[in-house]
Amino acid sequence: MSIFGDALLLDVSRGCRWGCLFCLGRRIYAPYRERDLSQLAEVIEEGMMKGGYEAIALISSDLCSYSRLEELLELVEDLRKAKEFRLIAPSLRADALNEKLLEALAESGEKTITLAPESSEDLRYRIGKAFPDERLLEVCKLLKRIGISRVKLYFMFGLPEETLKDLEAIVKLVEEIRRAGLEVRVSANPFVPKPHTPMEDEELEDLKSLKEKLKFLRRELGGILATNGLRQAYLQAAISRGDEKIGSLILECAKRYGRLTLTALRREARRMKMNLDEYARRGSEEKPWRRIKLT
What we know:
With about 300 residues, the protein is of the alpha/beta class. Helix content is about 45%, strand content about 15%. The chain has helices spanning about 25-30, 35-50, 70-80, 100-105, 120-125, 135-145, 165-180, 205-220, 230-240, 245-255, 260-270, 275-280, and strands at about 5-10, 15, 35, 55-60, 85-90, 110-120, 150-155, 185-190, 225. Helix 2 packs parallel to helix 3 and helix 7 (about 165-180) runs parallel beside helix 8. About 30% of the residues are buried.
């Protein structure tokens, strides 16, 4: 069973037309391409009638860019007349949302929509996600009007040039969305630079500083905030921009300790005379991933 529960996973498109500077997805899955509507219709009909799924999840990095989205929604609507099921659309872009899509989601019983504002309006523009807070608030009011009562928001902290004002702007935005009448859940995690992106040379912010920022967000947002934590970000940063030495470190750590924890990795790194903090902060000086050409 998938993370969406008992759902038929419908691969609508691959790739993404947007230019977020931090995102690896566009580089991995380029170029953007769509599955033909007739193929989708065949998969939906066979899957839902024979598989007996409780939901359909429309899988796409850029669902609202699908050129025949309204026709796809009509197809799904016709099928729901014969069999009840829920329609799921993972994380959507606030600046590209299709009202008909939101209505279809609400009519099928969906009560939660996931959006990713990423940061304050100013930083959001600087990292290539160019839409204002006003647009996000408009979308949230629309969600409330059509019967969707919950929204999950994804944010990053520790972005380059980030200040306390940016974190305060995140808190203010969340409060404004709550005042619009929606139940809000927030997921906030440190920015981790990824190879093959325009931000691959940025540094992971110092853990002490990240800890203070997370403390501020927890204090201001309270129980609605969830996070994967700083240790997870540290491990991601060290591994994602690592090299052969990091590979050897992981292998030796698994052999010696039987598990991959931050404590075990640091202990083994010291034994191997490796500076794990430098790998996490800046990545490998050799940048071996540049030998790999992504389309």
